[in-house]
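Fold this: Leishmanolysin-like peptidase
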Amino acid sequence: MVRKTSNVIRLNRMCRNNQVFYKVKDPYAYCKNACENRTMCGEVIVPEEHLEACRTCNSTGQDCKKTGPGQGPGIDGADFVFYVSAMETERCHKGMTVAYAAHCQQEAALDRPIAVETNL
């Protein structure tokens, strides 16, 4: 049985150099200085409509705020997002691999995957 997600699903944006700040009692991730121009889930570019606002702090973790692109409407009425791609990648050339999958982001409250990508 799946516990219903109480909110609209919005995924965190990727941060430049994967540098992230987390604030005490704040559910949002803040990028150090800047968000990436695009957010990936495996081989898939996540649509802007599925993303949270870009939130950044300066290099010392201060002056944190929303910057750049705002949040999209998100995905309502879903328990998770499943992205599918069909691309020939480096992983496809290893052994007998014909498909692979991984989760991209987890829900903060229950630590369960909310975004998954598979490449066929």
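The radius of gyration is 16 Å. The first strand starts at residue 20 and ends at 22.
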